[in-house]
TrEMBL record:
Pfam families: DUF445. One of its GO terms (cellular component) is plasma membrane. It comes from Streptomyces qaidamensis. Keywords: Membrane, Transmembrane, Transmembrane helix. The chain crosses the membrane at residues 57-73. The keyword Membrane applies. This is DUF445 domain-containing protein. Residues 13-34 are annotated as: Disordered.
Length: 457
């Protein structure tokens, strides 16, 4: 309670400072929307307030009635009417005491009785902030505890219910449509330049942080060991042979164009033909002979190169420099940007098309997930555990913020209007306390008087 008292005192000092500074008005309070709600009476509140006034008149009328009965009974008793007058007077007298006591108790909740500042009266307006603190602590201890949250969520059975709901095709369609809308909205809000910068920076940072030489070397070593590179060699040799067959004149012109100017033309022509035949022969032999020496030399070169990529310091350093130069080129960054643009357009188009493969797969996955969650206890338990852990994390991490929302909101309410609104909502039931106090007091007084007479006789 000491902590609560200090917190209330701090709130009161803050409110006093705001008032002195001229900012303590309704619109300057935190939670202004809630504060306005607490200073405004709705038609329903007005109707409840009329009900409270009617019950007050009834309870007061009953008090007046027993007072009149008491006066008449005492007059009859003094006039010698008989023993009955004493019983009636005793019952009426106790009824008046009970009615006045309960009137005082009910009134003391909302205001000072008869305007007299009696201690421990006007409890709601004077203790409003302390009540808000107590309410916040009560909610935090009894509703935001880990055990309570887990127990309540476990009783709900979210996994099975969610699974049964998702297993319905109409519901899966609805979730798919909502997810598509959210995805399109997110991609629309994101600026391409920002995403491209982030993606480019992430790729560059990841590439610079990891050496690629050993990885490439291991991959190349495996490819050569499995003979996977031979298909590439076959493709290159076949294309080279076909190209030479189709471009004989271009090869000979290139050879003749590189010859010295002082050599005769027919010599250049002979040299060109010889060079072309040798190239064509070499390509043909490479194509038709799997055991060609050049193929073996290429295998040895690739094997040595794969080994150097993994163990040779100079080779690895050259690969890293080459990697940095390639990543730093504008063409590569433009390629990353164009790749994001293409991916974004593809995703948006797929999200908009109800029959796209993306939406069909999402719908099928939701239906499958719903069926498994509805039927398999293991999946239900896993989903329930996720939900419980998430809820517990929220309430345990942000418990102070949640309870502070309650206390700060209550502190922002205007005391007078808060009192009126609370009275309008519970005041009618409280007037029954006055009525019951009158009746019970009368019966108690009658019983006490009867016992007293009996013992006195």
């Amino acid at each position: 309670m000491c902590g609560i008292t200090k917190r209330v005192e701090r709130m009161e000092r803050t409110k006093a400072a705001e008032k002195d500074a001229g900012i303590g008005g309704q619109h300057a309070r935190p939670g202004g929307a809630v504060n306005r709600a607490m200073t405004t009476f709705s038609p329903a509140d007005e109707e409840k307030q009329r009900g409270v006034r009617q019950m007050k008149l009834t309870a007061t009328g009953l008090l007046v009635f027993v007072a009149v009965v008491y006066v008449l009974a005492k007059w009859a008793q003094n006039s010698g009417a008989g023993p009955w007058a004493g019983y009636v007077a005793a019952a009426a007298e106790a009824g008046m005491v009970g009615a006045l006591a309960d009137w005082f108790a009910v009134t003391a909740l909302f205001r000072h009785p008869l305007g007299i500042p009696i201690p421990h009266t006007a409890i709601i307006p004077t203790k409003k902030d302390q009540l808000g603190v107590s309410l916040g602590e009560f909610v935090g201890e009894n509703f935001l505890s880990e055990d309570v949250v887990r127990q309540r969520l476990r009783a709900v059975g979210i996994g099975s219910r969610l699974g049964a709901w998702l297993a319905v095709p109409e519901h899966a369609d609805r979730v798919t449509a909502e997810l598509s809308t959210a995805l399109r909205g997110a991609l629309t809000v994101l600026r391409d330049s920002d995403v491209q910068a982030v993606v480019g920076e992430a790729i560059t940072r990841r590439a610079n942080a990891q050496e690629i030489g050993p990885g490439i070397g291991k991959m190349l070593e495996k490819v050569v060991a499995d003979g996977g590179h031979k298909r590439v060699v076959d493709l290159v040799v076949n294309r080279a042979h076909d190209w030479l067959v189709l471009h004989r004149d271009e090869v000979m012109d290139a050879v003749e164009g590189g010859a010295p100017g002082w050599t005769p033309k027919f010599v250049d022509r002979k040299v060109g033909e010889r060079v072309y035949r040798e190239l064509l022969r070499f390509a043909t032999e490479m194509r038709d002979m799997p055991g060609h020496p050049a193929r073996g030399a290429l295998d040895r070169f690739l094997t040595d190169f794969a080994s150097d990529l993994q163990s040779d310091t100079d080779t690895r350093a050259r690969i890293e420099r080459l990697k940095g130069e390639v990543l730093g080129r504008g063409e590569v960054q433009d390629l990353i940007a164009s790749a994001w643009t293409a991916v974004r357009s593809m995703i948006v188009a797929a999200a908009e098309d109800e029959r796209s493969e993306l939406r069909l797969r999402v719908r099928a996955s939701l239906l499958s997930l719903g069926s498994r969650m509805a039927a398999e206890r293991k999946v239900q338990n896993k989903v329930d555990k996720w939900v419980e852990d998430a809820a517990v994390y929220v309430v345990t991490t942000y418990r102070k913020e949640i309870t502070s929302l309650i206390t700060d909101t209550v502190a922002s309410w205007d005391a007078e209007h808060t009192t009126k609104k609370i009275e309008a909502n519970i005041g009618r039931d409280l007037q029954f306390i006055r009525i019951n106090g009158t009746v019970v007091g009368s019966l108690a007084g009658l019983l006490i008087y009867t016992v007293s007479r009996a013992l006195g006789a």
